[in-house]
Structure formats: structure tokens, C-alpha cells
Specification:
The protein is built from 18 helices and 21 strands. It is of the alpha+beta class.
Length: 607
């Protein structure tokens, strides 16, 4: 058996790092600014343990200066700086992390890696993604250290010499290449800084050469999520929401996450208010790592159903890959995700139990994500199942238990009647209300799948749409032999698939109602939702229920003119169909023509 060492060709690896390490070129600025913040953090830690001196009134910052004329971009910090030995060690050795070495060296003297952003020793090389040459001017905090100059044009050779730099810290000068001229535009640079560096822990200033240093930094060094929830005001939460998400509306409510064990996690999740029913449910969860922006809507951390929310999550312990753009597949991430889900469920439960009226008022805005969460995550459903509520036709909000108790009192045990289109189904709703039954309103696309899940979780409970249940729920009785009456309608309509029956209903102004089998309707909806399946596989089972209590039907029974009777039968059938759904083009034309003819006959009879 032989053993050996794997070798790496530096000529090949360096171009790969420059071109393929990061998904987006603009990340170079995030990496360089983050390195500057790390340099300041290291210096402050050394000062805390008595190994460095700092002026009492010294202001730390990272400064970005654009010189469009010379095509350079300079990123400067007044942090720890580097000696010549450290430049060779940290800059010329690919993937040797000065941050990791610093953490290991001082972990017993300080609080672990708190505040240190870098880990892989590769961020500096992102500069070569946009620069033809990179220069470094640096001076260490050590009293006897002299300045160091380092320069590289992106090849495998570099220059290093003594530098005249007098102040402690590091200046990185990028000579921007022609193909990346966009990074010489001030507006573009500000956009990148606001995207990635809006909440870094030290002030960041951007200016163009010959301009004075700005008085205000472009970032907020103490984002609201870092504060103790007990110290935050309602006004601060709302202001932060509007600033970060550029939303003029106040959020409905929010959840402040503040966890120290078993992992570090801070953040704020907001429940946005929809301004209208047609507004798309699009959220935005910003993920940060030590206040550095990583990405929006990372599904490994934020459960998919919570992506309808807006918020910021900062988790320094997340296992990121080397480009800090994606998460490693790690069980730790699942724990973070599960904890966030639990905190959301806890907040909703607390709101339901202590502020029921507020919870009710939020329901129409928040129910889509709650229902989606129940469908996607069984544990989430188990946590919120007792606070799921339904809006009734008379504008009340009731839980499933409350509704079933009321239905039982009206003789309909374990049955939940619902309407999907309250305006079109208004006559049906009125019929139920006349019996003291208030249907619940379930107009959303997700409601079909949601009620199927609730039925599966609650044995014996059945949801019935009002146009499917009307003949059973509102039927008083069937009187005598009505076969001839039913036959007249069958002959007039001529549809063998249509079932027709007679009953006495408590709705005298409705000559007939059309019902659709709940099961067949759900199967039809499923075929439309998933597509690719022929509707003929699940034909709609419709029943025309003739209302014997209607004066119109009583007069029709005595009508001897066959043509007039047929015309009235068709008219009654079309009215029943219109109460449930729009007619197709051909049926609507026939209905309009027939209506005109019936009105003409009525006027002639009057004359």
C-alpha cells in the first residue's frame, strides 16, 4: 500500500476562485467591507485583553472611495492592519483564514467568534472578479511595524515592498477592469452597499474622490433585532418595517425572535397587511449572518409557508458554504427552521387566547399562510389546530368546535356548510340563514385542499358546499306523487345526465335550485388544479331540485299549454343555473331570447 499527498495546480485554481467562487460579481464589495469590519473587531478584542492601544475618542469605520477618473475603488479600514509577514501569510496563501486563526488564538480570552465574520480565507480574492489589479497598503497596530505595499494583477506573481502608510489599518485599491465599468458608477455602488452592508456593525461611508467624508453612514450599526424585545416600542417596529421593506402600510403584527441556546438566533418577522384581495401574497425574509446580508427567502431556514411573511433573520451559527451564498445541508439548519415555526405558532396561539378580537380582525389577511402551513407542516397544524377559525356569512368568526356545537343545536351534527362565492350564492345563503344556519365563507383557492385536510384530521366531520347540501339541509318533505311533474322537466330540458327531484324548500321565491355533488365537484376542482387530466374522468353530478313551495311551480303544475310549460321549465332551469354559475355563450343567448318572449306574452295577456 502506498500513500501520497493530493497536489493542487495554483495556475488552475486561482482563475477558478476568481471566476466561479461567487454567484454574483457584486459580492466582492460585501466581502471586502466585511473584512474591514473583521479587522476593526480584532483590534477591539486585542484592546479588551490589553494587547493593543486605542485612542479614547477614536471612531472606527470602513470607508469606500470611488475615483472614476483613475478607475479605482478603494476600501479602507482603521482596524488591526497587517505586517509584511502577515500579508504573505494571509493574502498569498489561498484559503488560509486569518479570522479563523485569530478566533482559535483568542477563544479563551474573549467570547468565542462573536462578531468575526470571515471564516474561509477566500473573500479577498473576490476583488479579482472585477479588478485587473489589486493593491494593498497596510500598517499593523504593532508599535514597531512599518507600512507594507502588496500588488497583484490576477496572475500567480505579486509584488511586495515597504510602504509609506502612516496610519494603522488597511487600504485595498481595486483597479476596475473595462468589462466591469458598472462598478465605477456611484449609484450602482450605493445599491450594492445598501443590499449587503445595511446592518454591518461599524459605520460605512461612501464618497467620491475630492468629496469630503459624509457625516452620515450608509448603514444602521444597531438593527432593531439586536435589541431586547422589552426595550422596543411599537413605533420602532413599524418604522423599521417601513424602512427595510419600503411599505407605506403598517404591518398587522410581528414576532421578535431572540434565542441564545441551543443556537444563536435573532430577528423580526412581520405579518403584512394586504391592501386588496387581488394583491399577490409575496413575502421577503432577509437572512443575515453576523449582520451581513446573505440572501432572500432561503427555504432551508425559513419554512416555505412562512415566506409569505416579511422579516429579517440573523443567525451567526448557520453553516454557510465558502461563498457565503448558500447553506450547507446540515441538521442544524432544520433545528433553526423548526424553532422559527414553533415561535410563529406560539405567537398566533397567544394572540388568539389573549386578544381574540384582534386575532379575528387579522384573520382574512393571515389565513392563507396559516392554511398553507397546516398543509405543508403537520407539526405546525398540531400547534395551531385549536385556533383555526372560520368567517361566517353574518360576519362572525368561529372555531371549528364552536361551529359544530351550533350546527348540532340545529340538528346537523358534524356538518359544516360553506360558500365559495358569497355574492353569487346569496340566495342559497339566505335559505340556510332562514333555518338558523350560518354558512362559513371559504372563497380562496387553497380552501379546497384545506377543508379536505381538516376532514381527514377530524373523523366524522364533513364540509358541504351550500349548493351541494341544499336538498338535504333545507328539505321539509316531499308531498304526494310528483312523477308527472318531474317528467315534464326532464322532457323539456332533455339532459339524461341531469337528476331531477321535487321537494318542499323554505324559499318560496326560488322555483328550483341546482345542487352539485360535493365529491364530484372536488374531483373536478382537482383536475383543474393539477391539469393534464380529462374532466370526463370525473363528470359533475348535478341535481335540479324543484321547490314545491314556490307559487311559480304551483301554477306551472296546472299549466295546460305544452309549449308555454316547456318554455317555463327551461327558464326555471336556467335561473337555477345562474344562481350557481355563469351560463355559457349559447345558453345565455337562449335565456335572454326566452326572457324577452315571456315578457312579451305577459304584456299581451295584460292588454
Amino acid at each position: 500500500m502506498r500513500t501520497g499527498d493530493i497536489s493542487i495546480s495554483t495556475e488552475n485554481i486561482f482563475p477558478i476562485i476568481k471566476k466561479w467562487l461567487y454567484s454574483d460579481c457584486d459580492i466582492f464589495l460585501r466581502e471586502l467591507v466585511s473584512n474591514g469590519c473583521d479587522a476593526i473587531t480584532k483590534l477591539k478584542k486585542l484592546f479588551a485583553v490589553g494587547e493593543a492601544t486605542v485612542e479614547a475618542d477614536e471612531a472606527f469605520s470602513v470607508d469606500i472611495v470611488l475615483d472614476k477618473a483613475s478607475k479605482t475603488l478603494t476600501v479602507s479600514d482603521n482596524g488591526i492592519g497587517m505586517t509584511e509577514e502577515e500579508v504573505v501569510k494571509y493574502i498569498t496563501q489561498i484559503a488560509f483564514s486569518g479570522a479563523e486563526e485569530f478566533i482559535q488564538q483568542y477563544k479563551e480570552k474573549s467570547e468565542g467568534d462573536a462578531g468575526i465574520i470571515g471564516h474561509f480565507g477566500l473573500g479577498f480574492y473576490s476583488a479579482f472578479m472585477v479588478a485587473d489589479r489589486v493593491d494593498i497598503h497596510t500598517k499593523s497596530y504593532k508599535a514597531d511595524a512599518s507600512g507594507v505595499f502588496w500588488s497583484c494583477d490576477g496572475g500567480m506573481n505579486y509584488e511586495i515592498s515597504e510602504d509609506a502608510k502612516e496610519n494603522r489599518g488597511t487600504d485595498i485599491v481595486l483597479h476596475i477592469g473595462e468589462e466591469h465599468a458598472e462598478f465605477l458608477e456611484a449609484a450602482r455602488l450605493r445599491e450594492i452597499l445598501h443590499k449587503y452592508c445595511a446592518f454591518l456593525p461599524y459605520p460605512i461611508y461612501f464618497s467620491e474622490k475630492e468629496e469630503e467624508k459624509p457625516t452620515e453612514s450608509i448603514n444602521d450599526t444597531a438593527p432593531l433585532w439586536l435589541k431586547n424585545p422589552s426595550e422596543c416600542t411599537d413605533e420602532e417596529y413599524k418604522a423599521f418595517y417601513k424602512k427595510v421593506f419600503l411599505d407605506f402600510n403598517d404591518p398587522l403584527f410581528y414576532i421578535h425572535l431572540n434565542v441564545e441556546y441551543p443556537f444563536r438566533l435573532q430577528g423580526i418577522l412581520y405579518f403584512p397587511k394586504r391592501t386588496n384581495a387581488y394583491e399577490p401574497m409575496e413575502g421577503q425574509i432577509k437572512l443575515y449572518n453576523n449582520q451581513v446580508f446573505i440572501a432572500d427567502n432561503i427555504k432551508e431556514v425559513i419554512p416555505e409557508f412562512l415566506l409569505l411573511l416579511k422579516g429579517c433573520i440573523d443567525c451567526p451559527d448557520l453553516p454557510l458554504n465558502v461563498s457565503r451564498s448558500f447553506l450547507q445541508n446540515d441538521g442544524y439548519v432544520k433545528k433553526v427552521s423548526a424553532h422559527i415555526t414553533k415561535k410563529v405558532a406560539d405567537k398566533l396561539t397567544a394572540l388568539y387566547n389573549t386578544e381574540r378580537e384582534h386575532f379575528n380582525s387579522y384573520w382574512e389577511d393571515i389565513n392563507p399562510f396559516i392554511k398553507y402551513g397546516c398543509l405543508r407542516d403537520e407539526k405546525f397544524y398540531d400547534r395551531v389546530k385549536d385556533i383555526l377559525i372560520f368567517k361566517t356569512a353574518d360576519e362572525r368568526f368561529v372555531s371549528l368546535t364552536e361551529y359544530l356545537d351550533d350546527a348540532k343545536a340545529h340538528g346537523h351534527e358534524n356538518e359544516v356548510y360553506y360558500a365559495t362565492e358569497p355574492e353569487m350564492q346569496g340566495q342559497y345563503i339566505a335559505m340556510f340563514q332562514s333555518r338558523g344556519i350560518q354558512p362559513v365563507l371559504l372563497p380562496a383557492v387553497i380552501d379546497g385542499a384545506f377543508i379536505s385536510m381538516v376532514e381527514a384530521k377530524n373523523e366524522g366531520v364533513k364540509f358541504l358546499r351550500i349548493d351541494a347540501a341544499v336538498s338535504d339541509a333545507l328539505r321539509d318533505k316531499t308531498e304526494g306523487d310528483n312523477e308527472a311533474f318531474v317528467t315534464r322537466f326532464k322532457e323539456a330540458i332533455g339532459d339524461e345526465k341531469l337528476k331531477i327531484e321535487a321537494a318542499t324548500l323554505r324559499a318560496e321565491d326560488m322555483p328550483a335550485v341546482l345542487t352539485v355533488s360535493e365529491q364530484s365537484r372536488r374531483m373536478q376542482e382537482m383536475t383543474r388544479m393539477y391539469g393534464g387530466m380529462s374532466p370526463d374522468l370525473f363528470p359533475t353530478e348535478e341535481t335540479l331540485v324543484l321547490n314545491l313551495a314556490s307559487p311559480v311551480m304551483q301554477k306551472l303544475a296546472a299549466e295546460e299549454d305544452a309549449e308555454r310549460a316547456k318554455s317555463m321549465c327551461l327558464q326555471i332551469y336556467d335561473i337555477a343555473r345562474l344562481a350557481q354559475r355563469p351560463l355559457d355563450k349559447e345558453a345565455l343567448s337562449a335565456f335572454i331570447a326566452r326572457s324577452a318572449h315571456i315578457m312579451e306574452q305577459a304584456l299581451d295577456n295584460r292588454a
